[in-house]
Amino acid sequence: MGRTSTTKAWKFTKKRPRIRATSVPRTKPQRSLFTAGRYWRTVLRNMAKPDLDKIAAHYSGILKELGADLDSEGLKETPLRAAKALLEMTEGSRMETDQLTKMFRAECKTAICHDMVIVEGINEVGLCEHHLLPITMNITIAYIPDKKILGLSKLSRIAGYFARRLQNQERTAHLIAAFMEQIVEPLGVAVLIDGKHMCAMARGVRDTHSVMKVNVMHGAFQKDQNLRNELLARLSAA
Ligand code: ZN
Fold this sequence. Notes:
- Helix content is 49%, strand content 20%.
- The protein has ten helices and seven strands.
- It has helices spanning 2-15, 33-48, 52-65, 78-89, 97-107, 152-163, 169-184, 198-201, 220-223, 225-237, and strands spanning 109-110, 117-128, 134-144, 148-149, 166-167, 188-197, 212-219.
- Strands 5-2-3-6-7 form a five-stranded mixed beta sheet, sandwiched between helices. The protein has a two-stranded antiparallel ribbon with strand order 1-4.
- The radius of gyration is 22 Å and the shape is elongated.
- The termini are far apart.
- Zinc ion (ZN) binds at residues 128, 130-131, 133, 197, 199.
């Protein structure tokens, strides 16, 4: 039985790498379904990856237009460094949502009660899609389990996937809430984000103190005022 399934997986992985030879990872796929899945996730990710050198060349153009000396010691590696930073700050958008759903569904455990779970203080940095400047975010995720629960570190990882992309804060909160509903199928979920926007701090109004707060409440949190109050009271008490 085991033998049949591993043989199938091996045939599957051997068939396809010709799609784009340069982007296929060099690691040889192992003969198991699990690693075959991981192998193909890597292939998909590599295929979707933007070209680092092209982005660096664009950054060089911008710096030249600003009159910067790209031969100076401080700036000669800057285009490449900036390109790497941009890719890192948008890496969440290159994860396949279907793959994420499968991955996190597998991490769920069985719930033993319906008590509210709150995870506070998830710090993430996203990139404002209007100005390409960072938004530093303090994220809270709360949910009321029905049949499933998800561990603390998984919630931080989910927040990271949706924060690290070109975004606006409201959409990020909604995406996290919708994803939690899909994975955990809770009775209710709430996502609260306090964001400091560099585009408001460093340009325009140059307001270094304002914090944008977004509260998204779904399910029981939306319907039941008491639950909402309990959540908000516990947050302010922290
Ligand atoms: Zn902005």
